[in-house]
User: What shape does this take?
Amino acid sequence: MTEIQILALSGSTRRGSYNSALLENAAQLAPNDTELIIYEGLNNLPFYSEELDGDSLHPEAKKLRDAIAKADGVLLAVPEYNYSMTALLKNALDWASRPAGRHVFVGKPTAIVGASSSILGTIRAQLHTREVLHALQADTVPRPEVLVTQAASKIVDGVLVDDTARALLSQVLESLTTKITNQRLLQEAAERKAS
Ligand SMILES: Cc1cc2nc3c(=O)[nH]c(=O)nc-3n(C[C@H](O)[C@H](O)[C@H](O)COP(=O)(O)O)c2cc1C
Assistant: This one.
């Protein structure tokens, strides 16, 4: 039985995206009893507007919020555009961040990975994403940092062929599932104490 479900979001819709490929590889490397579900359709979200939120919530935003709420944890693959995350991913995080203070990312175990063609491998985009996740009160995995540099040599035909990067990807998934399990244990202990 699958005990842990992780929702994976890619910040790129490019055919042959290295970041989407990272998520496909992560699905193969996920620990036992863990299922990684790759979200489809971030590009169907309109740009965030309060006109489309609240009572008249856009259906694509509802779909995203429901998927995050249902998942035990979230894995973000973060491409770097102009030293930051892509607008696609920021838009998704903005949609997920409402209603303020009681949205689906509060306390949500979340991990970040990224691949880029440069030698810095999305570090700037990942740091910006960490700031945004801090604003969202997500429970973010601090280590390891998975920075796939010069991605064309490490992701070949969609396969992550670099051993170090594969090991780091496995480790970040382990860290994420450990965080999810620890959160569950704490919650169960709190429920026992309250009963
Ligand atoms: C508009 C644009 C801006 C970019 N800016 C950066 C950047 O600041 N840093 C970087 O490492 N790569 C940058 N790149 C290169 C991307 O890392 C590269 O295109 C990568 O493959 C995008 O991720 P994807 O393969 O998942 O689509 C940029 C690419 C585009 C199209």
